Amino acid sequence: MIIVTDNGCSNCGLYQNQLPLLDSRYSLCDVLWVGLSAKMIKARGESAPLGADTNSGKIINRIEGDLNNHVFAKTNLVKCAPLDQDNKLRYPTYKEMKSCFCHLQNEVANLGPRLVFLLGLKVATFVLREKDVQIPSLDSEFNYGICEYDNVSFVPIHHPSFIHIYKRRQLDQYISKVQAIISQTLDTSVIHVSGKAS
């Protein structure tokens, strides 16, 4: 179930724009995708973090497609929608990312993923700096570096929307490289199948 809920957080003012957009389908997962921030939604239950109604979500679904022996969950670094004075989406500020980071840390601790994909340079830079981990470059051939922290593999990769807009001809290569990281990191074993919600 995808929920838009008031989790009682008022660390920043973004909750006034839109309540947090959360994915509560699983209690545990093997892989966690982390985008930058929630998008605007028009109706309750209409969307999800990195949902299939977005270009990014469609690419992620293709990556997951052949790996259905693993449990995947999706979230954003900033759970609420950052809006400008014209009520349009904007990039979240450092302060907003800092205010919301505790929620991502809780998600990683509670969901227990072995692999966390940090989508795009903004997300990767913020998360890895907070963990005092050196940030690998985003290789143009999609040979991504893996950062180990507290027995979790954090992998900065190009955001799927970047691939959709600027590297569409290399989409299949991108998908194959990310799938290979998943298979190699998880050793094709089923870790948290019992974490699926019934």
Number of helices: 5
Distance between the termini: 10 Å
Evaluate the radius of gyration: 16 Å
Structural class: alpha/beta
* Helical residues, percent: 25-40%
**Number of distinct beta strands:** 7
* Averaged pLDDT: 83
Shape: globular
List the uncertain runs: 1-6, 188-198
Instruction: Tell me the strand percentage band.
Output: 15-25%
CATH homologous superfamily (4th level) name? Uracil-DNA glycosylase-like domain
Oligomer: single chain
Task: Give the spatial strand order of the biggest sheet.
Answer: 4-3-5-7-6
Number of domains: 1
CATH topology: Uracil-DNA Glycosylase, subunit E
The CATH class: Alpha Beta
Helix and strand topology:
Blueprint (H helix, E strand, L loop, with lengths): L1 E3 L16 E3 L7 E7 L17 H11 L6 E7 L15 H18 L3 E5 L1 H10 L16 E3 L2 E6 L2 H7 L4 H16 L12
Parallel strand pairs: 3-4, 3-5, 5-7
Antiparallel strand pairs: 1-2, 6-7
